[in-house]
């Protein structure tokens, strides 16, 4: 009796199997868009060749903030109190800038109780990826409208929303965020390219992902249902990501005109132009695209704005090359002579 052939385990560029990036079994509702995002995070970290123990996954409170249990089981994790994830991540980044910080939040955690925290993390340009799993409702508290619900959107039960929403992408662009994108949990290829590029960007990368709530907000009348978003998404461009260890000539080039954007680690984000009018370096153009999509009751998708020159917080603070967590006494403890100099300067 012949034995079954042993199936080879596929490894990434640092010789890690994908199992090194997976997590526990999801307890979310079957079909939830958040689970698709978790799957994309696993693939993105694995394909980018990130070391699992050099990733810190951060979250707050909500359905979205439960998801870090479902990916990167070998990475560091911190589940903060409601809305406080941005400030906790800021502190962690300052003392250990050598980790890749991946924050996952929701529209309640980010657009309501945590909006003040989010604003300051953006304006400081903290070096992190900030994914918003946006479904327009508070799923854990039975589906009330969140602050991002569109006017005219209707849940399976209850009245139509008439309150003006907060557009987190528009807010981020106005605050000078260095990487702003919007995608859809049902657009796996686009979302994967955006998240992989965000992981290689140095600075605050905000990705607003429309992720339909299958329990409370996935009927035809909802502007954030799977069917509505699929039929009413205005794609700015198709997005590809080329890691620094893959030569450009080996990557299939899409038909039509395209633009390559070099990220800080040498990797490339490739945009095939669909809308000739959109310039990702033009904040006014990005805001115009968002406003036009809102007027048309559509969802604009893709990389909205990018600034690869803005210094990250760690550069603004001129932090030492050695993270504070790894410093010895010779760096942390000033000499008596230096202390005397400081005292003398204060007295003067």
Architecture overview:
The protein is of the alpha/beta class. It has a single domain, classed as 3-Layer(aba) Sandwich (Rossmann fold). About 30% of the residues lie in helices and about 20% in strands. The protein has 12 helices and 13 strands. Helix 6 runs antiparallel to helix 9 (about 285-295). The model has no long low-confidence stretch (mean pLDDT about 90).
Structural class: alpha/beta
Strand content: 15-25%
Number of domains: 1
Gross morphology is: globular
* Number of DSSP helical runs: 12
The stretches of 5 or more residues where confidence is low (pLDDT under 50) are none
Count the strands?
Answer: 13
CATH fold naming: Rossmann fold
Major sheet: 8 strands, mixed
State the helical fraction: 25-40%
Order of helices and strands: HEHEHEHHEEEHEHEHEEEEHEHHH
Please report the distance between the alpha carbons of the first and last residues. Answer: 90 Å
Question: Biggest sheet, strands in spatial order?
Answer: 2-1-3-4-8-7-13-9
For the record, the CATH class is: Alpha Beta
Assigned CATH architecture: 3-Layer(aba) Sandwich
Radius of gyration: 22 Å
**Mean pLDDT rating:** 92
Say which CATH homologous superfamily is assigned. Thiamin diphosphate (ThDP)-binding fold, Pyr/PP domains
């Amino acid at each position: 009796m012949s034995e079954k052939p042993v199936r080879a385990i596929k490894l990434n560029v640092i010789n890690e199997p994908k199992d090194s990036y997976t997590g526990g079994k999801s307890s979310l509702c079957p079909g939830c868009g958040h689970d698709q995002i978790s799957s994309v995070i696993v693939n993105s970290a694995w394909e980018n060749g990130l070391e699992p123990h050099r990733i810190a996954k951060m979250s707050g409170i909500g359905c979205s903030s439960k998801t870090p249990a479902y990916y990167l089981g070998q990475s560091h994790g911190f589940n903060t109190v409601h809305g406080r994830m941005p400030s906790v991540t800021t502190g962690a980044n300052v003392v250990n800038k050598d980790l890749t910080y991946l924050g996952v939040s929701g529209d309640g955690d980010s657009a309501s109780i945590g909006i003040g925290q989010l604003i300051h993390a953006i304006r400081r340009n903290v070096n992190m990826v900030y994914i918003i799993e946006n479904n327009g409702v508070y799923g854990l508290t039975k589906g009330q409208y969140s602050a991002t619900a569109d006017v005219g959107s209707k849940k399976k039960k209850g009245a139509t929303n008439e309150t003006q929403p907060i557009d987190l992408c528009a807010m981020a662009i106005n605050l000078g965020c260095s990487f702003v994108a919007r995608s859809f949990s049902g657009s796996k290829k686009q979302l994967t390219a955006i998240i992989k590029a965000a992981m290689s960007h140095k600075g605050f990368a905000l990705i607003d992902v429309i992720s339909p709530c299958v329990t409370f907000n996935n009927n035809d009348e909802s502007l954030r249902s799977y069917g509505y978003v699929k039929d009413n998404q205005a794609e700015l461009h198709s997005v590809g990501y080329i890691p620094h260890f893959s030569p450009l000539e080996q990557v299939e080039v899409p038909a039509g005109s395209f633009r390559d954007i070099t990220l800080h680690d040498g990797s490339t984000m490739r945009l095939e132009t669909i809308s000739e009018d959109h310039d990702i370096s033009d904040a006014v153009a990005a805001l115009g695209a968002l406003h036009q999509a809102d007027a048309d009751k559509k969802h604009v998708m893709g990389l909205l704005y990018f600034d690869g020159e803005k210094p990250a917080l760690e550069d603004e603070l001129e932090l030492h090359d050695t993270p504070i967590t790894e410093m010895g006494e010779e760096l942390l403890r000033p000499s008596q002579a230096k202390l005397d100099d400081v005292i003398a300067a204060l007295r003067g």
